[in-house]
Amino acid sequence: MADVVIVGAGPAGAALAYLLSRRGIGVTLLERQSDFARELRGEVLMPSGIDAFEQMGLGEAFRALPMARPRRLGVHLNGRFVQHLELPDFVETAPHIVSQPAMLEMRIARAGAFPSFRFLRGQSAAELLARHAAQMGCSCETAARSARTS
After folding, report:
1. So where are the chain's domains?
2. Biggest distance spanned by C-alpha atoms of the chain
3. Residue 83: in which H helix or E strand, if any?
4. Element spanning 96, H or E
5. DSSP per residue over 123-147, as a string?
6. What string of pLDDT tens digits covers the 150 residues of the chain?
7. Of 5, 135, 147, 149, which is the most buried if we count CB atoms within 10 A?
C-alpha cells in the first residue's frame, strides 16, 4: 500500500516520486497516458533546472541523456527579427535542450530502483477516486463513468 499517491508523471510528479521513494516512502505514481510520446513543454532547461538534477543525485544520469546546447539565439521584437546573440561557451551554465520524454523516463527508471516505488501508466485518477468514493459509500460523477452507492 502506498503512503503517497502522486497524480501525473510530469517533471514535478516524477521528481517528487523519485525523492520520496529514495527515502523509503511508499509511492504510487499515476500517469493517464500510456507513454510520454505527446506534446510536452519545457524542453529547454536553464542552469537552475540542471542544478536540480545535481541536487537530487541525478546529475550523471541527466548528462547521459541526448541533448543539445544552443550557441546562438535569435531575438525578435513584435514579431520582427532584431538580431542574433552568440551565447558564451559556458558548458556548465548554458541552457540545455533535452527531450522531456527521455528525462521523465530516466527519473521513473531511477525511482524504480527503490522497492517503495510503483508506477502505473494509463491510469486515470478520476477512475481511482470514483472507485474509492464508491467503497466509502459516496457517489461521484466522472466523465468516464458514474459511481453510485446507497
Report:
1. 4-124
2. 67
3. strand 80-86
4. strand 96-98
5. --HHHHHHHHHHHTT--EE-SS-EE
6. 678 999 999 899 999 999 999 999 999 999 988 888 766 666 888 888 889 999 999 999 999 999 888 878 788 999 999 998 887 755 556 788 888 889 999 999 999 999 999 999 988 887 777 776 677 677 666 565 544 444
7. 147
Residues 113, 115, 38, 127, Cα dihedral to 10°: 180
Question: Under 8 Å CB-to-CB from 83, ≥6 apart: which residues?
Answer: 74, 75
Please report the pLDDT score of residue 144 as a whole number. 54
The CATH class of 4-124 is: alpha beta
Own/partner contacts of 136-139, CB < 8 Å, gap of 24 or more, are none
Q: How many residues does the chain have?
A: 150
Nearest 5 degrees, angle CA 19-CA 10-CA 31? Answer: 100
